[in-house]
UniProtKB/TrEMBL annotation:
SMART domains: IG, IGc2
Any Pfam family matching the protein: I-set
Organism the protein comes from: Dimorphilus gyrociliatus
Major location (coarse): membrane
Span of domain Ig-like: 1-83, 88-172
Record's protein name: Ig-like domain-containing protein
Compartments reported by the entry: Membrane
InterPro entries: Ig-like_dom, Ig-like_dom_sf, Ig-like_fold, Ig_I-set, Ig_sub, Ig_sub2, Neural/epithelial_adhesion
Entry GO terms, CC: membrane; neuron projection
PANTHER family the UniProt entry points to: CTX-RELATED TYPE I TRANSMEMBRANE PROTEIN, NEUROGLIAN
Length: 243
């Protein structure tokens, strides 16, 4: 009867199911309870009379393999499990600048089978979890209340029985004042659609509206309420002659 197999990625695997009475017994294979004869098998799966061979196994080949031997005396049904160990892979995402005092999340996707053990380093020092540093179940690194001292090169290492992989990225921490200055330099343009008489559409930019804030100017002993920048300029010019 077939035995369970623990293989590494790209290995070739063979399951054997050979009856004692080969002249009067019939062997059939099943995958997760479904007859293999009804499945659209990948070319890497080859079924022989008494064996099932899978070449270059991948994570998609992790299955329950079942063998049924039947004869006029009855049948025997046995299960075997194909486990494929997948070397860890880390998909690095670009790190954005983090404002001092905020929470930084180094969310790099980590895959592998069995589930890899993950640890992080800053420079050459392994990070120990504490109130500010946390490694999530997905392997992400969270840094709470970030300071400028947290800026630098970080290394993520994932390891399992199939191997290990490391990836690096730099964290940049900026002060709140720098973040505000950057935001002030951002100019957001808004567009609106205007239809002309011939029903064609034209996109126009809505420039920032002039402030309607009330401004009071002293002109010849009188206070004048100004709500338009052009009137304000006009009065400022003629106030020279009135004083």
């Amino acid at each position: 009867m077939p035995l369970s197999v623990d293989a590494n990625e790209q290995d070739n695997v063979e399951f054997r199911c050979s009856p004692k009475d080969k002249d009067n017994a019939h062997t059939s294979w099943f995958i997760n309870g479904e007859s293999i004869s009804k499945l659209d098998l990948d070319p890497s799966w080859v079924v022989n009379k008494y064996s099932l061979i899978i070449s270059n196994v991948t994570a998609e080949d992790i299955q329950v393999i079942q063998c049924n031997i039947s004869s006029h005396h009855g049948y025997i049904f046995a299960n075997a499990y194909l486990n494929v160990n997948i070397k860890p892979r880390i998909q690095v995402k670009a790190l954005q600048d983090v404002v001092e005092g905020a929470t930084a999340v180094l969310a790099w996707k980590i895959i592998g089978h069995p589930k890899p053990n993950v640890y992080w380093m800053k420079g050459n020092v392994i990070i120990s979890e504490n109130a500010r540093f946390r490694v999530t179940t997905d392997g992400f690194l969270r840094i709470f209340n970030v300071s400028t001292e947290d800026a630098g090169l970080y290394t993520c290492t994932a390891k399992n029985t199939a191997g290990k992989m490391s990836a690096r990225g730099s964290l940049v921490v900026i002060s709140p004042s720098v973040a505000v200055n950057k935001q002030d330099r951002v100019y957001n343009k808004r567009e609106s659609t205007v239809k002309s008489p011939d029903n064609t559409e034209t996109k126009t930019e809505n420039l920032p509206k002039k402030s309607n804030k009330k401004i009071y100017m002293n002109s010849g002993g009188f206070e004048v309420e100004v709500t338009n920048i052009f009137y304000m300029s006009f009065l400022a010019f003629f106030s020279k002659f009135l004083l």
